[in-house]
Amino acid sequence: MMPRKKNNGPIVALVLFGVVLLGVGAVGLIAANSSDRTTDSGYGGYSSFSPTYTYSETTTTTTTTTTTTRTSASTRSTPTSTQPVGPKAVVALADHPIHRNDVGAMDISGCALPGMDYSPAGQDRFLRAALVCIEAMWKPAMARANLPYQAVELQVVTQDMQYPCGTVKADQTARYCQGAIYWTAPNYANDNSPNHPGKYLGQLAHEYGHHVQWLSGLLKASGNAQYDAGGWDTPKGLDLNRRMELQATCFGGMSLAPLSHGAIPMDVINHALQDAGIRGDYPQYPYRDHGTPERNSAWVNHGYKNNSAAACNTWAAGDADVA
């Protein structure tokens, strides 16, 4: 999910937003995956991948103070002769291969965004056009890191509904779950931030950041780590959730970087960056699961200025940077 806005109240959903997202991330991405495991929205979604992909099942969780290595009991060795060749998701955090210095959103020549219409149908048109550009920037970056890729799905939500990770409410921020963004059109048209195309682009970029986390295996690793910590709402679990959400915010900044080279007006880019600075945890919220608005602003600008996934390694950041 996306970082929350001040007027939206606490959101505890999956984890996307992973929630990171997790899962994803969307803004409070935490949902129960089963009766005894709370995890990110992307945790169980690997079944939707092509079976030609293979996945690492060794989870390494790295924080500023401890490192825990755990091998899943479900790990099975497959004969090399029958194992397909292809990119694979890696279930890891700080030491994930996506954090290599050469992984960044790739430049594109232009992005043909339609004129903004703030109706649900108008938001749908704008977001789908923007996703074409974001996908074009990230697909080669994922290939460079030898990570699997599939296009994200978009569903515009106009009333409360059930989705694979629980319930999505039309008056709350968007949700990410298992390869799809659930965009809550009434929330964005009616919240108390200015109705500007940059708000929509910036929030979409954050949700897509959860998609990158889900594709790569980061959301699954985050969900595993939260489970090992005793749940997402423990002090350690909330720390992991903030790292997940702030990384999605940083990835969102990376998505904006190539667009600033003439693909779309800078006014839209600047507004998208500024919007991140009003989203996050406020004192009245019961859980600090997304990071303060100041931290969201810092990470989105860090991703934008560096356009390197290595710069978005929130899993290795100091505690003050993910407060």
From TrEMBL:
Biased composition (Low complexity): 56-82
Location(s) in or outside the cell: Membrane
Keywords linked to the UniProt accession: Membrane, Transmembrane, Transmembrane helix
InterPro entries documented for this protein: Uncharacterised_pept_Zn_put
UniProt-recorded name of the protein: Metalloprotease
Region entry Disordered, spans: 56-85
Membrane topology: Single-pass membrane protein
Main location: membrane
Domain of life: Bacteria
GO cellular component, one term: membrane
One Pfam family cited in the UniProt record for this chain: Zn_peptidase
